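2024-03-11 09:14:02 DEBUG pipeline.ingest accepted 1 chain
2024-03-11 09:14:02 DEBUG pipeline.ingest length=64
2024-03-11 09:14:03 DEBUG pipeline.predict start
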Amino acid sequence: MTDRFIEQLKPYENKWVALDDETKEVVGSGQDAAQALREAEHRGHKDPTLFKVLPFRGAYVPLA
């Protein structure tokens, strides 16, 4: 990940985001994936990548 990409995600900490696959720009966000997808589709993006932006402070360790 680039510094620019990480900076772009900071306002979305603990939220779901929809990313345009080509430009890697945030095209939707929300408290859940469905809300982020609706916002992206409203803006004309039909198949964005969805993911949760985890907190920037602390560590994430998957258990399984």
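2024-03-11 09:14:41 DEBUG pipeline.report Residues 37 and 50 are 7 Å apart (CA to CA).
2024-03-11 09:14:41 DEBUG pipeline.predict end
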